[in-house]
What does this fold into?
Amino acid sequence: MRPHRRTRETSGVLRPLILRDLMTDAKKTAISICINSRFTYNCWVNNHRPVGGAERDLTNVMRYLNEDGRFKFTLISETCGDKLSDDSIIDGVLIRNAGMPNFERVKILRPLAYLVYALRLLCANMTVHTDIFFAEGCSVAMIMMWLAAKIRRKPCVFRYASISELDKEILNSTKNTHGKIATKLFDFAIRTMTQSIAQTTDQANLFEEKFGHQIPIIYNILNIEPLSEKELASSLAQRDNILWLGRCHSVKRPELFLKLAKALPQYRFVMVAPEAAGEEKFKTEIEQQAREIDNLTFIGGVEPDKVAQYYRSARVFIMTSVYEGFSNTMTEAFSQGTPVVAYSFAITGWLEPLNKNANMADLDVAGTIILTTPGYCCQANDETFIEMTKRLMNNDDAWLQSANLALQHAHKMKPHTITDQYKSIFEKLA
It folds into this structure.
């Protein structure tokens, strides 16, 4: 991660003048992009409040493109208690606060809170200087961005945040917080976006099936320097644990990792589980259960620059999510040469889906499968989940083959490769 410097420039009487000058200069010299994302502000200023992979990636995109000099950003986001009543310039990005009203926590007032929130978002988008609007994921912010773009006749870009926004089976099997009417509105808005972007092949294929045309695939930026093959080979002796790392959210199903640790008491397990917004009670429960398991070490959140060392000390990375958008943790594991075993969710081309009803005899017959992929999806089969973890822990040759393939995948997500794709899209639209 590039070093973060937070600078709040000016306030009071002089701020409107400086903002006016900034926007005028941006209009003359750079493409202006307005990003709508409720929690990306938390990541942008590194205030240690809960964020997900989407917010981290948007932060990376803004940082790298901001450094280019040909792009300027406005971020419409919730500042989560920082009380930025006016527009503020932080690290070269114009921040507009459009957070949810405090009374949203009172159940009877939630409809009013969302209405106020929507109006705040619409006003922010209608009055910002921008050449292009951008939003990620199906949300109130996306709809207000889309509406403002249509009214102002500006191009609007939408990036999928999760496979659940396209996959009916996943949507029906999980809690659909949006409801049927909202889902239809999202579909209509997406259908009329100037440009949509997928994060994975799975998303792109489902989009084509649903809307009848192809969209580009842009991976998330890998912000961890990949190991070299030499470093990978020498690291094997220091890899002594099985790792789970991610937000402690119910959709991530960390309880399955606890179950795996109990089933394999001969191995050391490490769990890095920072808090997820709105899931405080769930995290407390998971942490309590984890601390009762002798062969498991529970760790809360860690600094971004410390994350790589956890992947580098792990022999296997475990993913238990119901679904993912673009799994940043998976690619971070790849970058450190750490093979992945997933319980049920597979990303096409990354993880090998094993036969859903596979038994150990089947795996023995197809034993070479372990040499052909950086990761494996066990398709909710407990026996296979346990066995594939054991095989990567016990078989050095198989592990090294998978680890090298993991590194190859990681190189596809280096910053310049990804940012060049965004630059091309923004330049065409502007």
Q: What stands out?
A: Residues 110-127 form the longest helix (18 residues). The two ends are 29 Å apart (CA to CA). The chain is about 45% helix and 15% strand. Confidence is low (pLDDT under 50) at residues 1-18.
